Amino acid sequence: MTSDQTPAQRLPTLEDVAQVAGVSRATVSRVINNIRNVDPQLHKVVWDAVTATGYVPNRAARSLVTGRTGAIALVVSEAENRAADDPFLGAFFSDPFFGRVVGGVLSVLRPSGVHLALVLAGDEDACAKVVSDVRQGQVDGVVVLSLHPHDPLPRLLADAAVPAVLYGRPAAPMPISYVDVATYQGAKLAADHLIARGCQHVATISGSVDMPAGVDRLNGFREAMAKQGVAYVPSYDGGFTQEGGERAMERLLAEHPEVDGVFVASDVMAQGVMTVLREAGKAVPDDVAVIGFDDSSAALATRPQLTTVRQPVEDMAAEMARLLLTRIDQRANRTTSVIFDPDLVARASA
Amino acid sequence: MTSDQTPAQRLPTLEDVAQVAGVSRATVSRVINNIRNVDPQLHKVVWDAVTATGYVPNRAARSLVTGRTGAIALVVSEAENRAADDPFLGAFFSDPFFGRVVGGVLSVLRPSGVHLALVLAGDEDACAKVVSDVRQGQVDGVVVLSLHPHDPLPRLLADAAVPAVLYGRPAAPMPISYVDVATYQGAKLAADHLIARGCQHVATISGSVDMPAGVDRLNGFREAMAKQGVAYVPSYDGGFTQEGGERAMERLLAEHPEVDGVFVASDVMAQGVMTVLREAGKAVPDDVAVIGFDDSSAALATRPQLTTVRQPVEDMAAEMARLLLTRIDQRANRTTSVIFDPDLVARASA
DNA sequence: TCGGGAGCGGAGAGCGCTCTCCCTCTGTGC
DNA sequence: GCACAGAGGGAGAGCGCTCTCCGCTCCCGA
Question: Which residue range or ranges hold the HTH lacI-type domain (chains A, B) (predicted)?
């Protein structure tokens, strides 16, 4: 009776449930994991016993024998040249985008009882650690937010053939799963909208052109404008920052004062663009129509509010989680990609 | 030699290290965990063997026997009346604040190898689940971001006497650890700054007065102004939202057009305030000086940039993690609170 | 010289679970 | 009526680790 002295302290185990249900440990395990056919009556008896005892499987014990942890990591990879505690990483975290991804991923993970561990990979060493963490079974797989085009992490993950899903197409082609948005289509939505408004002098402020998102948004927009009969579209690199957006808009205004429509490759840059336009005495959208990209919360913070191309971040993040869970489940080494359609969210700026 | 057929597949275990080092499993364990005095020479031999084999302790096995998981949860508790997948939760995640907390917590956790699991508690059931998760050893403890004054989670955690640390003082007094900022002092910084500027007609836009932060920032400001000889300060409730800030500022301007200095209880509200002031043709800071609170990224997004009371979010979050780890380590049920000093970050708006 | 204690390392028992065997029992076909 | 298949359930091994015992060695003082 030693073990019964502190019944409130000791958590119920399989053994306890088995005893209450009058079956063996193995049977309880089968019921809990839905394995093989267990007699329906017994099935119910076991579940009743589970409820009665308040039994919850012990993760550690289960992990130990299955070799799975029931946890995946969300890796925010900042690796390139900055230290992990660099203020810049904080700045990224400050971006609304991060939280939306977390929300999307968790919406899928919660029902399946999988934990989400947060990991920051600030440099190449940290990236290597991420890979070894997966191989050593600290987590079953990773979803990755990679912030730089030269981030070594995607390559490392692909080489290690480890369960992983990226947010956004990797900068270089490699065998790794990812979700992305149909950027060309999004840029086309913006182009068509500006044309439909009657804009005669359209320009674009692009993101960094060494990032897939930067290149695709620029090229997609140009292509769509070409289809509309506009052969040339001036473009300025805003580097995906608010500050960069301001500088780019200043140059655009200086060199093309006749501009009456701008496609800005991110909402954050668009914030800067709006500021510059206001200071230049240009009314939005009457003098200059502005369209952003992402539909982040920045789009709601501007006045007038920003018309933008909506990237379904939450849905994409949820799909990442789904792809990863499938991959882990099947233990097969197949890579997949899922591309989402963007929408145009028409607000006041265009 | 069965087990040696696929040496690349099987991860090294304590046993393997022991064999290489020529000692027993127990000794390797002692070395790894720094327990008792092990002969320094042997110590080195063991570490060499660890390096040689590439051994990494198996979390699950360790957990199983120690009863610790080596993971803590960051709980974002939205519990009050909304469902977990409600868009509002997404909106919270969009707030820069969240990411800063994560960064701070991780900076402490990473060195100690503790995992950070993200948990969303959208309703009271989810809160109960959080508590049982800790009791059932899914995680060793929790750090909590509680978003509503009537959130049941802090109470549940306190009652269960579970290792937990809150961000911000709980709405009602209870035995639970927390970190907070010296709000009165912060409000005083703002008051003194406005007075020093020569503002004659000072008002404040407060947050929700049913939240500790809302009440304290308002009362602290009033008290500080009183000390400066200003007996009455008009106040308007902006509910901690940008929209609410706009409405409050509109009313303030209508009822006190002579206002020349405003303390706004959050940067997000201040964004709205700035918009309204601009539309009303008031120059900031010449006509009206504006001071915010938080030093969030919203403070950098306004033009002119916002003078604000800086809440050292990252430091506070780091301290939360530290307090929690200590609490878990000692297994003692003592509650502590740590209060941080705010700074005034002088930018252009005041 | 010997007893005793401190220091150090090994043996071995589990932690709670899954999963492979194997046994039992029922039902079916000849 | 018997062999056999097949399904349901039990026994038990063992996942990798920690930690309690226990025994050995070595040094010191008597």
Answer: 12-66
Whether residue A297 and residue B94 make contact (CB cut-off 8 A), yes or no, is: yes
Rounded to whole angstroms, what are the CA distances from B326 to A61, A139, A189? 26, 25, 54
Tokens of A51: 């409820």
CA of B47 to C1' of D26 (A): 25
Which pTM does this prediction carry? 0.83
* Chain A contact for B94 (CB, 8 A cutoff): yes
Sequence-separated contacts (24+) of A19-24 with Cβ below 8 Å:
A20/A49, A20/A52, A20/A53, A21/A45, A21/A46, A21/A48, A21/A49
The ranges of chain B annotated as CATH 3.40.50.2300 are 71-181+314-340, 183-310
Read off the tokens for A227: 């289809």
Q: Which nucleotide is closest to the Cα of B62 by its C1'?
A: D17
- Contact assessment for residue A176 and residue A170, using Cβ atoms and an 8 Å cutoff: yes
Q: Check A71 against B298: CB less than 8 A apart.
A: no
Nearest by CB to residue A90, choosing from B118, B135, B314, is B314
Distance B32 CA to D22 C1' (A): 22
> How many residues make up chain A in this entry?
350
Pairing of strands B235-237, B261-264: unpaired
Contacts 24+ apart (CB under 8 A), B325-332: B325/B72, B325/B108, B325/B109, B325/B112, B325/B114, B327/B141, B327/B163, B327/B165, B327/B177, B328/B68, B328/B72, B328/B140, B328/B141, B328/B163
A280 touches chain B (CB under 8 A): no
CATH (one of 3.40.50.1100, 2.60.40.10, 3.90.76.10, 3.40.50.2300) for B71-181+314-340: 3.40.50.2300
Those of residues 64-83 in B touching chain A at CB distance below 8 A are 64, 69, 71, 74
Q: Is A11's CB within 8 Å of B137's CB?
A: yes
Classify domain B183-310 by CATH number.
3.40.50.2300
Distance (Å) of CA B151 to CA B82, B132, B164, B211:
11, 17, 15, 11
For strand C, the positions having any atom within 7 A of a protein Cβ are 7-12, 14-20
Hey, is A251 helix, strand or coil? helix
The verdict on B338 touching A (C-beta cutoff 8 Å) is: no
Looking at chain A, the domain(s) classified CATH 3.40.50.2300 span 71-181+314-341, 183-310
Q: What is the mean pLDDT of residues A232-243?
A: 93
* Statement: residue B44 has pLDDT above 90: no
Alpha helices in A161-263 (DSSP H): 183-197, 212-227, 242-255
Range(s) within chain A of domains with CATH label 1.10.260.40: 2-57
Predicted confidence (pLDDT) at residue A337 exceeds the cutoff of 80:
yes
Q: Which residue of A has its CA nearest to B85?
A: A107
Q: What are phi and psi of B340, to 5 degrees?
A: -100, 150
**Å from the A323 CA to the D13 C1':** 35
Which chain A residues touch B91 with a CB distance below 8 Å?
Answer: 297
pLDDT digits (tens, 9 = 90+) for B255-275: 999 999 999 999 989 999 999
Residue A271 to residue A171: CA distance in whole angstroms: 26
What's at B99, amino acid-wise?
A: G
Cβ–Cβ of A301/B301 closer than 8 Å? yes
Chain B 50..69 CB hits on strand C (< 7 A) = 61, 64-65
CA of A22 to C1' of C26 (A): 21
> Options 3.40.50.2300, 3.30.479.20, 3.40.50.20, 1.20.1250.20; which CATH number does A71-181+314-341 get?
3.40.50.2300
The CA distance from A86 to B134, in Å, is 32
CATH number of B2-57: 1.10.260.40
